Structure formats: structure tokens, C-alpha cells
Amino acid sequence: MHKYMPAVGFTKLNKAALEELIKEITLRPDYQESAIDFEGNQFVELRYMVADNVGLVLRGIYNENDEFILDYYYPTYFGASVSINNDVEVIKQTDKDNYYVMCDEIRLGVNLIFQLQNMGEFLRKNGRATKIDKRDIKLAALSTEGKILLPVYDNEKSRIKEKMNNQKRINLVEQARDGNEEALESLTMDEIDLYQKISRRVTREDIFSVVTSFFMPYGIENDKYEILGDILDVKYVVNHLTMEELCMMIIESNDVILEVCINKNDLFGEPLVGRRFKGIIWLQGTVEF
Fold first, then answer.
1. Which pLDDT does position 26 carry in this prediction?
2. Which of 38, 39, 177, 286 has its CA 20 to 30 A from that of 158?
3. Model's pTM, two decimal places?
4. What's residue 155's pLDDT?
């Protein structure tokens, strides 16, 4: 069973039940699309939703007898709001008919890589083009382990100052990439000052009072991350097949907004607006091609 099936409410699904569910989806999907890739290969995607924007995706082909041949399946959660607008590069996975998206997000400090959810739309509209300028991206993630942390006290003045400092840093990074040596020197000095401040504070404060937010790669898989961010919204939905309760949160991490779905039983603590979520996520996303 897929590792992230519990995140969409399938904690106790055994092999026989999974096979029966896949068979049912092939007969009565909620959504179906097909496309031909630039190598001439057929692509078929079937979706079955078990709650709002949450469900299973089957990908494969139809044979000569109009029977669906499954290649692979995965649980999914579709985000509803735009997270970022950026240039994207679409990369085909080597071992199966699947695509990742990579974009350079300065606010995170890393190349953001996530699984492409609307693969059929990409194949139909873009042909062989893999590098595409400025597109809206809706990020969503599944998590199987997370905890709720209390917020760090601040006020409106300090939040405004922090956002201004972040924007200043982004501008300096862009200038440094264009070859501005003064910007590079300024960034270096800022990093030294920040390191010294953190070194002093961690001797007398808890690390999560010093580090208020982070977004960093986790493990060896490209689309897995560990995040810490503020909770902007919380709602609960129920998987209508298993009746397991799922928690959906809108998280702001390093000024990037994304949506996270986690099984309520896998979340330690009570999520409330203003508190923080810390957890490991599998990042997916939809690109407006």
C-alpha cells in the first residue's frame, strides 16, 4: 500500500480491499482524462474523490479490449489557492510515466520540486516544451506525521519589519545572481550577523522560539520536505468510505502558502489559527498551463 494512503483516510486498507477499490474506480471514476505524450505514448488518468479535493489517482492505459491497465496509483490532495507564480521546468521521471515540476523559489532558498497533478493538461497543451515562463502554482501536500507548536509572541510592528527584511533579502539575492558584487557582500555580512545572533539566543532559548519557520528538503526523495509554518486556516473533512477524519490546514512557511492534509490521528496537538504546524510532507501541485 502507498505510504501516504493514511493521509487521505485509508489507515486500515488491506491488499484485497485496495484491489477491490481500484477495480471500482476503474468502473466508475469521478473524473477521467487522456492524452498522448510527445513520444506517442497513451496516457490515461482516473480520479476518485473521497472528500473535498481529496482522493485517489490511477494512471495507466486502455488496451485493445477497452480494459484499463493500471501502471500506478497514488493518494492526492488538490490545493484551492495559488501559492506562488514562477518559471517552471517539467521533468519526466525515469522509471515510470510521471512528471515532476521544479522551480527556483528564492524565498525558500532551495529549488522547489513537487509532483505534477495535472499531467494530462501539460501533455495536451505543451507538447515537447518543458521550460515554461511565469505560471500560477497551487501547492498541496499530504502528511503522515505532524505536531502543533505554540506561536512565538510578536506584534504587528515586528511582523511588518520581518516582511520588509525578507523582501530586502530577496532583492539582494536577485541582484547577486545578476552579478552585483555589492549585493553579494551585503548578503554575506547579513549571514554572519544572523549566525552570531542565533548562536547567542540558542544558549538561553528553545530552538523553536528562535526558528519561527522553515522549509527544507527531507531525505533522499526530491518531493519530500520538512516544514514549520503558521496555521492560517483549519477545517475537518471525513473520508466517506472509511469515515476517518482528516485535518486540512492552510500553512504559511517562509512566506509561501500551501495546503496540507493529514489524518487527524496522525496529528499531535490541536491545530488552531495562529499556532504552528511542524511536519514532514509529500508535496504535490497544479500548474496553470
1. 93
2. 177
3. 0.88
4. 66
